[in-house]
Amino acid sequence: MSIIKKQDFIDSVADALQYISYYHPLDFVQALEKAYLKEQSQAAKDAIAQILINSRMAAEGHRPLCQDTGIVTCFVKIGMQVQWESDMTVQEMVDEGVRRAYNNPDNPLRASIVSDPAGRRINTKDNAPAVVHIDMVAGNEVEVAIAAKGGGSENKSKMVMLNPSDDIVEWVLKTLPTMGAGWCPPGMLGIGIGGTAEKAAVLAKESLMDPVDIHELIERGAETTEEKLRLEIFEKANKLGIGAQGLGGLTTVVDIKIKSAPTHAASKPVVMIPNCAATRHVHFHLDGSGPAELTPPKLEDWPEVTWEVGENVRRVNLDTVTRADIADWKMGETVLLSGKLLTGRDAAHKRIQEMLNNGEKLPVDFKDRFIYYVGPVDAIGNEAVGPAGPTTSTRMDKFTDMMLEQAGLMGMVGKAERGPATVDSIQKHKAVYLMAVGGAAYLVAKAVKKARVLAFEDLGMEAIYEFEVEDMPVTVAVDSEGNNAHVAGPAIWKARIEELDAKMKV
Length: 506
Known about the structure:
Elements: E1 2-5, H1 6-22, H2 26-38, H3 42-61, E2 71-79, E3 82-85, H4 90-102, E4 114-115, E5 122-123, E6 131-137, E7 142-149, H5 151-154, E8 158-162, H6 168-175, E9 187-194, H7 197-207, H8 214-220, H9 225-238, E10 253-261, E11 268-275, E12 281-286, E13 314-317, H10 323-326, E14 334-343, H11 346-357, E15 370-372, H12 397-405, E16 411-414, H13 420-428, E17 432-435, H14 441-445, E18 448-455, E19 464-478, H15 485-505
Parallel strand pairs: 1-3, 2-6, 9-10, 13-14, 14-15, 15-16, 16-17
Antiparallel strand pairs: 2-7, 4-5, 7-12, 8-11, 9-11, 14-19, 17-19, 18-19
Helix pairs in contact: 1-4, 2-3, 12-13
């Protein structure tokens, strides 16, 4: 019998969450390196390069890989011979570990959890509670698999109740393109099959805790139904041409994970959950001998990847840029932004809408300005701002016409695609939408030289800031004529992949 002490468990959870905030799993880094070396799309290759550089910087600086430090999911398998020395439940101990990790002054993590989700949505300030799954298993140890899952990828989860005769691969290939790029590909897809609706979802989430091993599976060959599905989906998903950040390319997924369970004869529940480019998870065991020891990876295990902007890069001064200037910008161009950049996301946009509807004067003049959709991590030391990567732009789509027409905004910076109506609005108002790389938050933050809150300070990370940036790299995703990189890029690369396949068969 093992006796697990409360403090050992709490400390292990807190240490694990700090660890995964800045260390990618090395198997994922190695998979990204393979994708980088293989990639032929320059836009996708540049995006993967930024993700890999950001990964190394986060590991070196012990700062978050992504500004969205996630909702914590914890799978706890408790041996039947384990005894607890604790006056707290497992849920309470996990939550205490979360609080300590997210409020760590040396590396504060962003608190993103809100209570009363159907109502006032009040931030809990400490990222608790976590989502905890508990299983009783044989043995005298406690096994913990813990992850921090960002909202951008979690929001792209899909669920379907298929008929028993329906094709799972067909559903995946039909569904994946509808998920857009808000989940920050390239990443992994976790697929749960069977059980009931909620069981399939848990299976999908748990599958994402496994290491990247698709290339080993390709080499040895599939033996089980699940392995055959993994290989088929991996091959066909990458032929869709979605590519890194949805810009078009050879690699959309670096692995496919599948777990299944027996189900009702009339049912075939399937859940698909993506893991983004900021994949964060770790496993540890407790046997009563003390807290878990997590061995840091060696920095030399990261690939030596550099990223240089091309000769045709456009340098822009945000303080002097005009609408006539942005009319010359073309879809797919790399732009380096310098000057004053406003920020704002969901809560700020909602409040702006309420003020405009009430005829109130806005606290910030948005006319002919650019806004960055971001919720940064708190700064430490001499940082102007903590990791500050883009959030998913589609959540701001319903406010875009208002911001362009009533507030006078000229440009937006965010992550992933915009909806068709938003693209039409951008074209109508001769504005532009620029895309920063999701999964490169610490790298982006290095371009921010000063930051101050201008309005809505009570919203915390969702307040309106003014950043002073220097050479912040972005891509023109939608130009003032409505040309859309997230439509053109994948279409071009899907066709090119089909051409490459046809040549190989000749």
